[in-house]
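User: My advisor, Dr. K., asked me to get a structural model of this assembly before our group meeting. I'm new to this, so sorry if the format is off. These are the inputs:
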Amino acid sequence: MNAGVGLIVWIILYPLVAFSLGVLLGGYGRKFTARVQRRVGPSWIQPFYDVIKLMGKRTNISHGYMHDVSIILLLGGTVMTLYFVPVPGYHFFGQFGDFIVVMYLILIPSLGMALGVGQTANPNGSIGISRALQMLAGYELTFMLAFIGLAMKHHTTSMYDVILAQQTGGIATWSIVTDPLLGIAALFALQGMLNEKPFEVIMAPHEIATGPMTEMGGKYLGMMFIQHLILLVMELTFFINLFLGGALNWFEYIIKLFAVFTVVLSVNAVYGRFRTDTALRFFWKLPLPLAALGVLGIQFLAK
Amino acid sequence: MAEKLLTQRNAWDRVLSSLKKRSLWMLHYCTGCGAIELPPTMTARYDMERFGIMPMVTPRQADILLITGYLSVKTLKRVILIYEQMQSPKYVVGFGSCTINGGMYWNSYSTIKSLDQYLPVELFLAGCMPRPEAIIAGFNALMDKIDQGKANSWEDYYKNYEFYRKNQQHAFGDIETHHDIPSDGAYFGILEADK
Amino acid sequence: MDSLITANDGRDIMPGARALENREYNLFIGPNHPGIEGNFALKLTLEGDTIVKAKTEAGFLHRGFEKLMEERLFMQNIAIVARICVPDPDPNEENYARAVEAIAGIEVPRRAQFIRVLVLELSRMASHLFTFGGHGGTIGLYTMPNWTVSDRDRILDLFEELTGARVYHLYNIPGGVRRDLPQGFENRVKEVLFFIEDRLKEYDELFFNNRVLLERSVGVGVLPQDRALEWGATGANLRAAGFAYDVRKDDPYEVYGELEFEIPTATDSDCYSRLIVRRRELEQSIRIIRQILDKMPPGPVWNKQPNPLKWRVPAGDAYVRTESSKGEYAYYMVSDGGVRPYRVHVRGASVTHGVHILENMLRGARIEDASQIMFSLDACPPEVDR
Amino acid sequence: MNKPTLDRANVLARPPAAVGKPRSAADLLSAMADELGIKTFFQKAPRRIEGTVAPELLHSFAANLRNRLGVEHLSAISCVDWIDQGQFELVYHFWSYRDSTLMSAKVRIDRATAQMDTITDLWQPASFFERDIHEMFGVYFRGNGDLEKYILSDWNGPPPMRKDFVSRDFAHEHFQFKTYDVPWDERIQGGYYGSRNGEEKKNG
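Assistant: The format is fine. Below is the predicted structure of the whole assembly, which you can bring to the meeting.
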């Protein structure tokens, strides 16, 4: 009985926990970038203020039914994916959280965004969406290949088992140590998934006026912000679970979150953004071959 | 219901407005010569992001519309289109004496003379191009007004829309904007507050 | 009617299918867009990501300066002249002052000429730092504008101390300059020069040798060398195409004739070479200012004119040219012996860069590079609209 | 490499005469006199020569200046409205990089008809200047392709730069100023509000 109650409580509580973690990470990201730029930077929970202001908007111009529904699809898809990502001390769905399922579910938010932005009929938005789908062929492929290598190595497609396999011998058995090629390729892919420069081609303000978010305002933008923060936490958790041996307790988990995010941010602060085709070509020139080499290495060496 | 009258604000309103004032997004659009003082305000030395003020790209996402200095009639037409796309509560900040009463270009044939005939202005900043410190002091004043719930000049645009519409048509003739303001006002419940 | 899909023996398999006529679509990078420098609009016709046709639209900043100048006294115009080009206001004051002096034959004291060159070069440095930041912003490297604009503030502090205002100085008036250098001003200028010099090393690491900038700007936005002169390019855009022409050397004014400085040029005339030419010009400006501070003679700074309200400039006309950070900046002033200038024509540097050259160079470029090309040409819209 | 092409192929890239030893102003004046047949030019100041050219000869003058004398830069075309003599004066400023000299050719055209041949087929920068003068003064340039409004696209009044159009009066009629009807304001300025330009005008 109490497992059921615990499950209900967790289903309600966990998105809030992920959201507040995302707010802290977002605030930390803006403060870190500001410090690199010799600025003071906003407060630690600035994304929280932004979301409150956006949700408090009085007029929210809607572009039709599809526009409203797509935002629900966007946020709902992300929160649903959240339940399948194993996190320390959470053992309901996480156990059965198969990576293929997660990879499938994560496409629902981008599908929702594509439908909503298509409805707003803003040329900037449609260019942004076409770029987002192009970039999928870049970083999504690399991350998938990196995971296939791990799946072959540990003979499982469930993230939970990969975590257990990594926790057997402390740091020595972390995937990033055992198969560094996959780890580096996944780090590049993470840079693309989080839409950080140099692969920030989807929301390039100077070229296409923040792409998909051009026509979103008020509550729509608020929901997109919440989704963006939760997605930030989730994608970092992917990397931690697959390559840094998951986390036994919450303290270690938060430390790892901030560590990986710092690596991503430091690259983001000092590089411009590629053109769309250059970004794609970069992925096909360096990270993808790395991942392929890693997979081949696992296939033949680890017999 | 419009922003409640000052006396009716309960604790929840006060908490909300004190949170809302911490995040203001400024439209990245330099309409006049005062915009040269915006980069120094945004960047490392004066850094307005400390107050949560960030330049945003499109009118849909912005709260503050900066009219930085003089406004030629051609730009006024674009500014009206942009102002109506913005989501309220929205605040117009006029820089320098050109927006108050024509300023340096009082005898020019192509610039409008006082901004508040065409748009409800929340805040005027003095200075023939206000300095970064003045801009930040102005934004702090705007934040205090939001905190006390007095920053609701945007309702004025919905309430007496005819006054603004007449002046706009006088300035550049009739243009069809994308938003039918009176019906927006009614739909979002801004007009019937004082009925 | 060429058929769209043909079998390998040439038969038209799908007679109804026709090439998509209208694959092009319009995208207005309108006045409200961060990729645009100032208040300016680009009407682009795009096919996929490539720009097929570009049409600039200006006039958003038109205040009718030339008309306003005709309705003001000579001394009153000093206040309005500086407001034409915002990032680099001092060439305006310089042109106006020298035009009146050329017509009226006013003799400017030597010390005032030295101070004028000092102010012009400081303004050029501030404008170049502003352009580096803008260019960094277009490729998404927001650390660069934060660094350069805050370093530019050190120069604006110097201006504030010398002239009392950060951007519009109203310091350079017909007959000389308004007041002498304050006590110990030279040491503070030298301090700022040393500061900017070692900041340049950090800019090299962050920006000028940045892998992504090289990837994004080398070979992009090429101003063909054979067309550069014919399209009327001037300033750094012309020097990036390999022509070592500079108004300070060809048509020396004030004391530029007595100073030694080189004119940096590049050859392949793309976005990156224009950037590098401006960076080397910054170094040359530092060198000029150091020479100015060493050779500054003592003496008066203003050749006092009669009562400004009744001051009449004899009839005549003059075409005065200055090298602003954007290119050749010229005034044509005509006076009919009255109390007000009869006609002042402002030839901004961007009337060629920002209009026809930009339209010609955008044809065939990609949508991502549109704003970078505009920033590399340093087109300043208020100069186009006046 | 995206090499933008200009749609007029017949314009010379760089005239052969443009490269060579710089000539002094006197040589230029004599070269202009015998090669181009224009004798009205004189030296006005160091590096400045000036002269008048008849309107119909201007197009050939501009062409020969480029091809024969190797002048490469059209700095500006200015227009001055001499309303008392009923004439527009178009001043063409050519700059020769080779000799570092500015040649200003002054052309007088009648103010009523206000027509002139275009030189955009020879000098590409002229297209902006001619379009600007057309907007501001109303001078029609025969042969210029795009003379439609560029800067004053929302302006339907007369060409504003003409001397008979007074900007101050237009501003006072067309735009409303803020009237400060504060009692102390009346006392200080004697009931006058408006421009300080010396005229006493009661603001209605």
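One thing worth pointing out at the meeting: The beta strands of chain C are 24-29, 41-47, 50-57, 172-173, 176-177, 316-324, 327-335, 343-347.

User: Perfect, thanks a lot.
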